[in-house]
Structures are given as C-alpha cells and as structure tokens.
Amino acid sequence: MKKIVFTLSALALLIGAAARDTDYKPQYGADGKLLIPSGYRQWQYVSSGVGMSYNAPTATPPRSPGFSNIFVQPWAYREYKATGKWPEKTMFVLEAYSSATNAAPNRQGYFQDSFAALEAEVKDSSHSPDVWSYYNFGTGPGPAAAFAKNQCWQCHEDHAAVEHSFTQFYPELLEVALAKQTLKAGIYIPPNVKRIRELIVSSGWPAAEQALAQAKEKAPDAAIFTEAALNGLGYQLIGAKHPAEAVKVMQRVTRDYPSSLNALDSLADAYDAAGDKQLAVETSKTLIARAEKETPQTPLIAALKKSAEDRIARLEKE
Questions:
Q1: Taking the domain 38-50+64-188, which CATH number applies?
Q2: Is the dihedral of CA 131, 136, 140, 143 positive or negative?
Q3: 96 - beta bridge partners?
Q4: From CA 61, how far away is CA 126, in angstroms rounded?
Q5: Has domain 193-317 been given CATH number 2.60.120.20?
C-alpha cells in the first residue's frame, strides 16, 4: 500500500510540474510591453557564445569578450526536438555577462563575471503581425518594449537557420534541424568534425571528400578546414579504430598545410596506427630533416623532432 501511495504522490508531483512547465509563456503589461520571465534559469539551456557580434570586426577587438547564455522554455524545446519547428509562444532568453580572467587559480582563458543585460526573442503572432519580436531589458527590472522591426527582425529573417532562431550556433538543435530538414531555404550549413567523422565511418572517405569539396566551394572559411579541426578529426578516427581513413585525413592536412611540421608528425602517427611502418619512418625522417632547417629552433620544433626520433627508434626495434 505504501508503494502505491508513493507512486500516486509522485504522479501528482509530475502533473504539477508539467502544469507549471506550460505556464512559461510570454506575459505583457497593459501597455503591451514584455514582462521579464521569472525563473528562466530553470528553463532548457541551449548554448553559450563568447565574444560574438553580428557587426563587422573593429580594428581593435575588445580585450575581454562578453558571454551570452541562451535559454528556452522546456515545453517549446521538447516540441522543437520532435518537429524541428518552434511552436507559438516560444520565448528565448539571452543573458549577457562580462568576462574576466584574473582570479586564482585561473591562468588563462575567460570566465563569466558580471551580469550585463537580459534580452528576449518571442514568437507570438497574437501580439505582433511580424510573429517574432525582440526585447532588451538591460539590467532590469523591465518591462521592455519591442525593438523596431529594422533593428533585429530583418537580421534574423535574413540569416537565422530555423525560422528566426540562430540555430546554426546551437549544436544540439542544429542536428535536429538537419535531421528534420527544417533549415530555411538558402541556408547552407558546412559540415563540422562530428558530421564528417560520421560520414567517413558510414560511407567511407570518398563520400567525405565530396562533402568537403562542396563545403570548400560554398563556405571556404568554414572551421572544418582549419589545421586543428582536420588534425583532430584524424586522431578521432585513430581512436575509433579507423586508421586507414585517418591516413587519408592526415594526408589532406599535409597538402593543405605543407609547411606544418605538426601535420607531418600527425601523418606519421596515422601511418603507424595503420601498420605501415615504412611510411611512418619515412615521414618521421622527413620531419626531422625539415625541423633541423627551421629557425629559430622553438620548443615546439624540438618536441616534434623528439617525437619523430622516438617513433623511428620504436618502429625499427619492432
């Protein structure tokens, strides 16, 4: 009997929680201004940005990049996950924080410091003929009037990946949009390391190479083409027991970054993982020869040279 009572009590709590969950809807004052949503930090966390700006970069970037944290109502998040679309009354809340770096034991990088502003994006066709509206509460307490249409609305209309949400910056939600095929027409999303890795594992390197070629044409500055991204992809494939594919990736890195000693070191590791001792040794020797010609002889060059020497010594003993 106690077990049944506990179960019913738990069910009542769940029903109460669900009811409160659906209460997270935009609320307006008599003047039509949006009220600050209470308890938004209990909503679904979406993502964070650091130092992001939709304006052209300035000659002197800010010394301390700002943080932005995005939240959305749990019920809207669940519906989006199921459909790839945002339901009516969806409300995104963005809180902005300044950044700081000088605090023990931090030695580098940034952490969130001082609350700077609160903004909101609301999908509510009953409140606005433009469906989506944008608000800035500053540091509070609000309420806030909607921005004029030319201040935020058009940018979201032109560049947001899903409806008016910048889903291209929200990794988990972007995967939903790609799976549900709900990206806006004309929006191209270049592949990232995760999607290229999955493509290689499922369909082989030729399919991935084709996807990269398409991305190079449409988005040549995409992050996937950085040395660090491709290098990381190669090592992920090694870790996932796909050394032959890792070799293909590392070969591309050395072609794209021919002066990089680190790329040569990674290629040698890939040959080693694939069981090709001869090419692993030859690539290591090429690295050493090039490293000896580099000036100045930095600690990184010395470390790469030592890595190549150790690899050769180990492989020649096997």
A1: 3.50.70.20
A2: negative
A3: 68, 117
A4: 41
A5: no
β-strands 111-123, 132-138 pairing: antiparallel
Give yes or no for a contact between 224 and 256, defined as CB atoms under 8 angstroms apart: no
Over residues 92-107, the pLDDT tens digits come to 999 999 999 999 999 8
Q: What are phi and psi of 137, to 5 degrees?
A: -85, -5
Instruction: Give me the pLDDT at residue 3, please.
Output: 47
Question: CA separation (Å) from 306 to 35, 247, 285, 300?
Answer: 62, 21, 11, 10
Q: Is 298 exposed, middle or buried (0-12, 13-18, 19+ CB in 10 A)?
A: exposed
Output DSSP code: residue 37. Answer: P
Kindly list the domain boundaries of the chain, sorted by start residue: 38-50+64-188, 193-317
- DSSP H or E run through 134: strand 132-138
Q: Distance of CA 292 to CAs 280, 283, 303, 315, Å? A: 19, 14, 12, 21
pLDDT digit string, tens, across residues 57-106: 777 766 789 999 999 999 999 999 999 999 999 999 999 999 999 999 99
Q: pLDDT at position 54, please?
A: 81
pLDDT, residue 60, reads 73
C-alpha distance across the termini of the chain, in Å: 69
Cα–Cα dist 86/83, whole Å: 8
Residue 140 to residue 97: CA distance in whole angstroms: 14
131-140, long-range: CB < 8 A, 24+ apart: 131/164, 132/156, 132/163, 132/164, 133/34, 135/34, 137/36, 139/115, 140/36
| Residue 146: alpha-carbon gap to chain centroid | 29
The residue type found at 194 is K
